[in-house]
Specification:
With 106 residues, this protein is an alpha+beta fold. It is 39% helix and 28% strand.
Length: 106
């Protein structure tokens, strides 16, 4: 069994929901990202306290017809990609509010 992953939204972004999509601008290069509905669900649920697996099971698998294993693999890949762009923080431990403010990759 692998360690749980926790994700938190970066504080160094600007975001706006438009329909089912989410527009996110990263302070990391002032890049604009459009998150599809599934990615938007993950980003909105990324509170730093809820394990990624729980987010996938309760938010994504309940919304879409996808196996938990496949959805978790896709969510981990997406989270890693968003973390590279400074949109999400990832940690093997819950991410405290103060840590998210410091913006270190945990």
């Amino acid at each position: 069994m692998t360690k749980p992953l926790y994700v938190a939204r970066s504080r160094r972004i600007a975001a706006r929901k438009l329909g089912e999509e989410m527009l996110v601008m990263s302070a990391h290069g002032s890049t604009l990202f459009t998150l599809n509905p599934t990615a938007a669900i993950l980003w909105q649920a990324a509170d730093g306290a809820t394990p990624l697996e729980e987010i996938v099971e309760s938010k994504i698998c309940s919304e879409y017809e996808v196996s938990p294993e496949e959805a978790l693999r896709d969510a981990e890949s997406l989270a890693q990609d968003l973390a590279k762009h400074g949109i999400l923080l990832i940690s093997e431990k819950p991410i405290a509010e103060s840590s998210a403010r410091n913006e270190g990759r945990l």
